[in-house]
Design goal:
The chain is mostly helical and 54 residues long. 91% of the residues lie in helices and 0% in strands.
């Protein structure tokens, strides 16, 4: 087996271990909260801008 293939296999093994240890439920919850905050901030800025323009 070539050195490149062995190195790639090592990387895949590490990535596999990281994915096994990852808590997807927490990751999805965190992403949803962040997306909600970003959406709320954009909505709030739109409301503030529209009231300033009026």
């Amino acid at each position: 087996m070539s050195q490149e293939r062995l190195a790639a296999l090592g990387v895949l093994s590490i990535e596999c271990q990281v994915l096994r240890e990852l808590d997807f439920t927490q990751l999805i919850d965190d992403f949803g909260q962040l997306k909600c905050l970003i959406g709320w901030n954009l909505l709030h800025e739109t409301c503030v801008l529209s009231s300033v323009i009026k």
